[in-house]
Design goal:
By secondary structure, the protein is an alpha+beta fold. The protein has one domain: Beta-lactamase (3-Layer(aba) Sandwich). Helices cover about 30% and strands about 15% of the residues. The chain contains 10 helices and 8 strands. It has a 5-stranded antiparallel sheet with strand order 3-2-8-7-6, with helices on both faces. A 3-stranded antiparallel sheet has the order 1-4-5. Strand 6 (about 270-280) and strand 7 (about 280-290) form a beta hairpin. Helix 4 packs antiparallel against helix 5 (about 170-180). It is globular, with a radius of gyration of 28 Å. The N and C termini lie far apart (about 120 Å).
Length: about 325
């Protein structure tokens, strides 16, 4: 009896020491749309998911350009520039003075001049070497395609090349949905507009396609242009480029964006910025040129000959030096 009791007690003790072990399974993790670096060559074995780029909760502060009309008030214009545009402005950026304005604070649709704001917000949100995966929705927007395909992975800089040279609406949508969700990106565009004191601008999409509540003014777009030229050297280099070669990689095909800003070829001293067109906006253009140490920015909206108008306005600006 004593022997049997001892063996039973021993068995109970052994059972008490048994611990259950939870089963584990490897669950596939989805790859985020943004990676910090591209994969240089294809790999035969799986690689860890890239770490998403942290998105700031607020945009960096930027100096607001001061565009004064004090010189214009004391220097009556003897000969008004003859243009077809319904709104226009001429600004001497070097002196910070408005030299001419026509319906410059009236709201109008501004077509692809929107993309100047899109580019600045994108540069605020992420480094230009950030890799963005192109979503299917971005490839279905019409018109003006960079030519990207769903699933391709391009750096933000490459998408900006297509955005600003080809005026790619697909690039605009890929940027807006690839860095953050689209609604947040558009919210950032309007936050940026408020920070720049753009009192008559509102954005509802990243490309500039016609929508009822999407508009700006010649004055506000001159502020946008001045900000890009002064504070975004990478973007300034892109808008001033005639052509950029984007070579094929394992992540995307080759692209060859050519700048549709004709003034880069025809106007001496031209340094960009951006043309645009929609049915509601007509032909629009923000343009800049530098001569003899002066930089002149012009904006024309709602024209039938935006390049001719811009050249006329630039000539007007250079003919009117700011005197103290």
């Amino acid at each position: 009896m004593l022997l049997l009791g001892s063996r039973a007690f021993s068995l109970l003790q052994n059972q008490h020491e048994i611990r259950p072990v939870a089963a584990t399974a490897h669950t596939a993790t989805s790859h985020p749309a943004v990676a910090t670096r591209p994969v240089a060559t294809p790999r035969a074995t799986p690689t860890p998911s890239p770490t998403p780029v942290p998105i700031p909760s607020a945009l960096p502060q930027v100096k607001v350009p001061v565009l004064s009309s004090s010189w214009l008030r004391t220097h009556p214009i003897a000969e008004t520039p003859q243009i077809k545009g319904r709104a226009a402005i001429v600004v001497d950026l070097t002196a910070g003075q408005i030299l001419y304005q026509q319906a410059a604070t009236t709201r109008y649709p501004e077509a692809s001049l929107t993309k100047l704001m899109t580019a600045m917000v994108a540069a605020d949100l992420a480094p230009l070497d950030t890799v963005v995966t192109v979503p299917l929705a971005a490839t279905q927007v019409e018109p003006n395609h960079m030519g990207i395909s769903a699933g391709e992975k391009l750096t933000l800089r490459e998408l900006l090349d297509g955005l600003l040279l080809d005026s790619g609406n697909d690039a605009a949508e890929a940027i807006a949905t690839g860095l953050v969700d689209r609604a947040s990106f558009i919210r950032f565009m309007n936050v940026k507009a408020a920070a720049l004191h753009l009192k008559a601008s509102h954005f509802t999409n990243p490309s500039g396609l016609d929508e009822p509540d999407h508009y700006s003014t010649a004055y506000d777009l001159a502020v946008v242009s001045a900000t890009l030229l002064a504070d975004y050297p990478d973007l300034r280099a892109i808008v001033g480029s005639k052509q950029i070669s984007i070579y094929a990689t394992p992540l995307h095909k080759a692209f060859n964006p050519i700048n549709i800003d004709r003034l880069l070829w025809t106007y001496p001293g031209a340094i960009g910025l951006k043309p645009g067109y929609t049915g509601a906006a007509g032909y629009c253009l923000a343009a800049a040129a530098t001569r003899n140490g002066r930089t002149i920015v012009v904006v024309v909206l709602g024209s039938t000959q935006h390049f001719t108008d811009a050249a006329t306005l630039l000539d007007f600006g250079f003919r009117h030096p700011v005197t103290r």
